[in-house]
Amino acid sequence: MNGAGNKILVIDQRGAEPPTPQEARALHRAPGLDYDQMMVLTHPRSAGTLAYVLIYNNDGSLSGACGNGTRCVADRLARQTGRESFEVETAAGRILCERLGEWTYRVDMGRPHFRWSDIPIAHPVEDTGAVDVPLDGAPALGPASLVSMGNPHAVFFVADADAIDLAKLGPRLETHALFPEKANISFAEVRARDDIKLRVWERGVGATLACGSAACATLVAAVRRGLTDRSAHVRLPGGILDIAWREGSDHVAMTGPVEFEREIELTAALFEAP
After folding, report:
1. Stretches in the chain below the pLDDT threshold 50
2. Class of domain 139-247
3. pTM of the entire predicted model
């Protein structure tokens, strides 16, 4: 499947053992199976949820959140159960999923977190709210806003997102010493109070056509800097996501498309590393 261009592989492993990190890497290398994130459905761990979802990056590492992948999971579960609204669970917590149209879903990505230990970063910083944090090695970009949306994000606001050398800066900043668990690196161009252009380097993946949690983190960072209102269209190379940081609940809601591409039967050989 894909969510706004984010390549998603959904595997239903309810009743079976989930893949190991080595098997996840092997699947990504299999012909025609390269993915950005792999969403693995396992049996529910909490009452009232339909599944617990393990999220693998294509390097085999685990992630706590993937908004585009969660919408793809929601589509599969909605079509299996006929339900329009339900919850799934990830390492980042329970996520409410709502079907709004044939191929459109809204997912509740929860509250953003800003404490240094929650993001996490290696040590406290002078800006305790993590709104403007300078990173050595990238002074020309100016300070980053740091946010956790179940995974760590650093957002840089730039005049021209297309002018950023993503392949050069992304891996350097992803592995910056400030980020003990690495970080998703976003370059955001605010075009209006409700319009943001975004390019993302995802940790454990690389440059992607879309990153849902990064879109959420970017909107939150933009609001905290006074650059946008609390809802905006976030334009990524693969499509547009509608993000709203709800004032009452403090939760961030993401609305966007999903697309079914094909169904594949996975053989044991595909899980074997070359």
Report:
1. none
2. alpha beta
3. 0.93
Give the number of other CB atoms < 10 A from CB of residue 108.
Answer: 20
- Look at residue 180 in the predicted model and tell me its pLDDT: 97
- Active site (annotated) includes residue 211: yes
pLDDT of residue 205: 93
Short-list 224, 271, 256, 262, CA closest to 97: 256
Per-residue pLDDT tens digits for 23-33: 999 999 888 88
CATH number for the region 2-110+258-265 comes to 3.10.310.10
Residue 97 falls in the annotated catalytic set: no
- Of the listed 66, 72, 97, 216, which one is catalytic? 66
Distances (CA, A) of 168 to 173, 207, 274: 9, 11, 29
Please enumerate in sequence order all residues whose Cβ is within 8 A of that of 225, keeping only pairs 6 or more positions apart, or say none.
131, 132, 145, 157
Phi, psi of 268 (to 5 degrees): -60, -35
* Strand residues in the chain grouped as ranges (E): 2-3, 6-12, 37-42, 49-57, 62-63, 85-90, 93-101, 104-108, 145-148, 152-157, 184-192, 195-202, 206-208, 231-236, 239-245, 252-257
CA 157/CA 4 separation, integer angstroms: 22
For residue 129, the SS3 value is coil
User: Quick one: pLDDT at residue 272?
Assistant: 76
| Domain range list for the chain | 2-110+258-265, 139-247
Amino acid symbol at 268: A
